[in-house]
Amino acid sequence: SYRPLRRETLLAAVPAEWLADGTVGPEHVALAQLEARPLILFPRQAAPALHDLITGWFVRRGAMPSAGQQAVQMQTIVGLVSAGLGFALVPESLRGLARDGVAYLPLSE
């Protein structure tokens, strides 16, 4: 069972190169900018609540990006984003995990 301790906004963690090449805007990112890109995500069995929250965000908007890598630790997910392998939706507090090559952007939807 789960007990909420805090609520956080989800942010898009995207490769910084996507900002440089205009794939995403500098202030926020829209669903249309993410749909064709690979999503890096927790496996559902490792974190079902977070997995369902993230995939549900897309489903409610009638979309689902292509499946990318899966990882069980946030640091690994951010590392995969830094390597340019896709994007991730992450809790806002992860912004504190400043990693070269990663930009954290609010979602426009």
Based on the model shown, name its key terms.
single chain, about 110 residues, two-stranded parallel ribbon, 5 strands
Topology:
Elements lengths: L9 E6 H5 L10 H4 L3 E4 L6 H12 L6 E5 L3 H9 L5 E4 L10 E5 L3
Parallel strand pairs: 2-3
Antiparallel strand pairs: 1-4, 1-5
What does this 3D model show about the protein?
By secondary structure, the chain is of the alpha+beta class. 28% of the residues lie in helices and 22% in strands. The protein has four helices and five strands, in the order E-H-H-E-H-E-H-E-E. The strands form two sheets. Strands 4-1-5 form a three-stranded antiparallel beta sheet. A two-stranded parallel sheet has the order 2-3. Strand 2 (38-41), helix 3 and strand 3 form a beta-alpha-beta unit. The radius of gyration is 13 Å and the shape is globular. The N and C termini lie far apart (29 Å). The model has no long low-confidence stretch (mean pLDDT 90).
Short recap of the structure:
It is built from four helices and five strands, in the order βααβαβαββ. With 109 residues, it is an alpha+beta fold. The longest helix is centred in the middle third of the chain and has 12 residues, at 48-59.
**Outline:** globular
Element-level helix/strand string: EHHEHEHEE
List the strand order in the largest sheet.
Answer: 4-1-5
Poorly predicted ranges: none
**Separation, N- and C-terminal Cα atoms:** 29 Å
Helix content: 25-40%
Strand content: 15-25%
Calculate Rg over CA atoms. 13 Å
Strand segment tally: 5
Count of helices?
4
Mean pLDDT: 90
What class would the helix/strand composition place it in? alpha+beta
Largest sheet at a glance?
A: 3 strands, antiparallel
